[in-house]
Amino acid sequence: MIPSLANRFGHKIVVPEQLREIVGPFPRKKKVIMCHGVFDVVHPGHVRHLLYAKSKADILVASLTADIHIDKGLYRPHVPQDLRAANLAAFEMVDYVIIDGNAEPVHNILAIQPDYFAKGYEYNANGLHPKTSQEVETLASYGGEVLFTPGDIIYSSSHLIDLTPPAIRNEKLLTVMERYGVTFDGLRRTVEAMAGRRVHVVGDLIIDSLTNCTMIGGQTKTPTMSVLYESRDDFVGGAGIVAKHLKAAGADVTFSTVLGDDALKDFALQDLAKAGVDVLPQIDPTRPTTNKNAIVAGGYRLLKVDTLDNRSIGNNILNELVEALGATSTEAVVFSDFRHGVFNRRTIPAFIDAIPVGCFRVADSQVASRWGNITEFKNFDLITPNEREARFALADQDTPLTALASDLYDRTECRTLMLKLGDRGVMTFISHEHEKLGSYFTIDSFTDRVVDAVGAGDGLLAYATLTMLVSNSPAEASILGSIAAACVCEQDGNVPIEPEDVLVKLDKAEQSASYWT
Question: Is the pTM for the entire model greater than 0.85?
Fold first, then answer.
């Protein structure tokens, strides 16, 4: 198998302190020139710029902006910083690559003191930009010089990316696997080792229904659609399907929830018992079992009718749930929050205090359409919100995604954050040093065809939790969680994901990512 870019050219990627020792202090015998940019997509304009710069000095240093400081769009960069660094290192004319953890390059210019700093022609065509003037002054302070490369050809990375974002799922996957020592065989062993792990799920059970109809037509006098009822399918969803995913993966699962005293309660308890989930239900006759019923015709969801009561659970039920949580022997506790009464500002502190000492603590707060806040679950080992929930929690709709995720990671004080990005995959943060390599990574979606994306996050939550119990590897957890989410997306309704489903897709991922000589 051909080595990846990061593995083959990683020796060229250094930190500024290393580079200063390598090139020596200014002035020096061998001239050093530095180029700086985002380099999200390296195009012919970049190549000409780098070639020109190399022709002016002995050593060419390519400096690139860390992901955390890129603000050219909500989802930029498309190529993460470690892969952008490897792309530049692969060029023969580039001697060294550094990732600049600062918002501006002047800090590293002063630290390294290159003889020359190369800028594109466009930075000098209509007078100096204030930032360029600052760079000129910084170099002049010790005797360096800014060189402007010829302007006969200029391409815009942003324009190219806007046309078609780069499809680099395999490259991202292999880069993450190499960085964190993950192998495909190791992932398979982790799936096999999930059996027997003990997990306690606490949260809101939902019955998801599909009422299948045939379209008859519309009324002539009113804008009313007419459909013919055919059948109804009920599925255990919400925190219930999280419990079923965990059980399907081989875990021993305890599930604490609140149900109404109705027929859907009976359906839920029978379904969960059949799946092998040990349920500790609290029955509240004053509320219905939460039901979300989608009216479907011709494969389209026309309408969703919800039957629910979102008021907070009473103290008696809260005390029963808290007592069961503290008394249940388990390796992990998963709070699956849909804000249908179990979790709120009043109850969350009591639940957190009741978690047995030494348990792996997980929280997922799927509350984008209701009031709720993932930041109420502080100091957890793993949290798995999606982008919309993160923006809701931080009251921030404008910040680029990487900066948004880093802010959420810091605010929640969690150990691992997996930010679900829908069809763009998952972004995982594991360190507060956000500018450094390895502080976070992205895994693109493994979904080949979307049938029904609802519930994908539940599959990710279950398999990511078990992976962390087995291997304590956020990289493995992100990969296997994403694969489980893809399996959910490729079928209709809430169906538990079996290990065989994950292994089949893992085999396909290995085949796709492998390049044989």
Answer: no
